[in-house]
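To: structure desk
From: M.T.
Subject: fold request, one chain
Message: Could you run this one when you get a chance? Sequence is below, nothing fancy, just the single chain.
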Amino acid sequence: MALKAYQHTSPILGTRVFVEQSAVLYGDITLGDDASIWPLVAARGDVNHIRIGARSNIQDGSVLHVTRTSAADPVGHPLLIGEDVTVGHKVMLHGCKIGDRVLVGMGAIVLDGAVIEDDVMIGAGALVAPGKTLESGYLYIGSPAKQVRKLTDDECAFLTASADNYVRLKDEYLAQLES
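Reply: Done. Structure tokens follow.
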């Protein structure tokens, strides 16, 4: 796997983490237990930090980045991803905060300062504008992303089931590497 230091800071991995060898992680990145990073993910914790919670998965071709601190913005925008989050293929997450039990659909873009509360589904191809907050318990689609409807009980259950499926899959990949 490609874990690379930046300014003497290297990624930190929790236990039972899977990072596919074509993924590249730079700098100040922390992965929680049972997290998984899939092929061709690029994550740069160079000018701020990235935190990915336990049991979260970042799927193929996704790009994760941050915004630096400045005199006008002394905190900048780190990238914070909660627990049990599924980030679909080719997603762009930039300096935003993603709560727990969130599904970010394929090709979605979430920009600086956006806050995605817990228990949210973001549809494929959605664009979440800078600074926008997506309220817990809803489906959002479109460009720009708009609240469409409340999540059903089955959809809420799926948020955790999706993360669980990726934990099982990464365990299969880890077992294969050990044999």
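Reply (cont.): The chain has one helix and 20 strands. Let me know if you need anything else for the meeting.
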